UniProtKB/TrEMBL annotation, chain A:
Enzyme class, UniProt record, top EC level: transferase
Domain called Histidine kinase: residue spans: 150-361
Organism listed in the record: Chitinophaga silvisoli
Source organism, top-level taxon: Bacteria
Name the UniProt record assigns to this protein: histidine kinase
Keywords: Kinase, Phosphoprotein, Transferase
Modified residue annotations for 4-aspartylphosphate: D55
Catalysed reaction equations from the record: ATP + protein L-histidine = ADP + protein N-phospho-L-histidine
SUPFAM superfamilies assigned to the protein according to its UniProt record, in alphabetical order: ATPase domain of HSP90 chaperone/DNA topoisomerase II/histidine kinase (SSF55874), CheY-like (SSF52172), Homodimeric domain of signal transducing histidine kinase (SSF47384)
PROSITE patterns membership: HIS_KIN, RESPONSE_REGULATORY
Response regulatory domain segment(s): 7-121
Family annotation (Pfam families): HATPase_c (PF02518), Response_reg (PF00072)
TrEMBL record, chain B:
Pfam family, one: Response_reg
Residues carrying 4-aspartylphosphate: D65
Entries under PANTHER family matching the protein: RESPONSE REGULATOR RCP1, RESPONSE REGULATOR RCP1-RELATED
All copies of domain Response regulatory, residue ranges: 8-135
GO biological process annotation, one example: phosphorelay signal transduction system
Coiled-coil ranges (or none): none
Protein name, as recorded: Response regulator
PROSITE patterns the record matches: RESPONSE_REGULATORY
Record has Transferase as a keyword: no
Statement: the UniProt record of this protein carries the keyword Transmembrane: no
Keywords: Phosphoprotein
InterPro entries: CheY-like_superfamily, Sig_transdc_resp-reg_receiver, TCS_response_regulator
Amino acid sequence: MKENRIRILYIDDEVHNLNAFKASFRRSYEIYTANSAQEGKQLLKSIDVHIIIADQKMPVSTGVEFFNEIKDTLPDPMRILLTGYTDVEDIIDAINKGHIFSYIKKPWDEHELHRTIQNAYEIYATRKQLKEKIVELEKINDELNRFIYSTSHDLRSPLMSVLGIINLSRLDNSVTDPNGYLNMIEVCIQKLDGFIQKIIEYYRNSRLDVEYEKINFDHLLNECISQFKHQNTAIEFQVTVDQPVDFKGDTFRISVILNNLISNAVKYQKPDEVHPKVNMAVKVEPHKATLLISDNGIGILSEHLNNIFKMFFRSKNNNKPGSGIGLYIVKEALNKIGGTINVESKYGEGTQFEISIPNRNDFDS
Amino acid sequence: MISIPDLRVILIDDNEVDLLLHEKLIAIQQISRTVLAFNNANKALEFLSSNITLPRIPPTVILLDIQMPEMDGFDFLEAFDSYPARIKSQCHVIMVSSSLDYSDISRTYANPMVVKLLKKPLLAKELTAAVTEIFRDFS
């Protein structure tokens, strides 16, 4: 059995038709014949065919009945019905019941049948490829999930041990470190960990299902601020929340967005600024929430504004540590929940991000 | 310092460095004099089995890691759940993990045997606070 040839099973109760078919097509295809539906079924148990052609008018069981019977156990082969009668009822019946690819009139036109077989095989091959691709994609997906899981554990676990050792050395004062090397190690480890966490955040955003729940912005913003406050205690945070109606949205993604933007606002402050400020204003309306996050930090060069949402883009005008992935994650998370973002910035004066997120609260019901 | 006289701590973690770290932290914070470290959850279960016949089971805090080869933290909890109530009631499980995995975290919170989840690196303050909280009503 050659693998690259099209295998066809032809079922017809008239033996001379079987012979004629063989004579016309045996050079092009690998042909199996049967003179009853019963014999056809028997043959299909041992041979894997691509196309099945069956005559409609056969004693015991008709072509349509035969196709209908095998379609659940053998869904893959393409089915072609052959009949001498152009009975519309038959055709409709065949197409609806037996999932038939095509219908050919007897006596068949050799070219037409040839073309039909070719077309049927093309669809067969495409479907098969698609199935293989799906299996392959599912496997890759699964591997990616496991990769994320082990990244979050296997990479972080030794880092956390190192941080634990540093903490311990401070508690028991067992290490003399006049040059502050331990602090430097700690800063490096935290930077690396921050990067690992960003990667995990990115994958979780792209893979986790969107889930809507009630969000209290006052609570959410203060939670975010408490995470970053200690990084620069001079900053004055101002939060204004105008939430007269309930807001429903994806908590994970919205907090990812806020965390990244607030983290940036805290990080990119001018070192000589006397009154560093981060202002946050939220306005909730029945159909959307608008969030403004502004700072009086170093600002973004206008020629960089178009690039800040690109993956791994980092502005050259600052020497702050960054992974270049934060704003990319913000953009991706907004895409997931149907939100938009705008940025305005004056270099040396500050930056303002305006976010709009749809409110998934169903007011109409 | 925690003043439960016969309090003991069982550490279960496949990471030897973390076992040592946690042991030192417990000593520095004077949480307990008795620390039993197991680098494999099965060995800890065996040890706990051998305790069943003791006339009195001392109050026990178990610091349990989540990801471990062979038997992980959740497997341990499942096996330990079948132990007699008189030993289970004396054991208080604190999960300790560096995991950021959402399902790990929610599974931990959902487990009735887990008192608390602490993130690695374990901080002296947090550990003491968690243990104090457990025995708040006892002393």
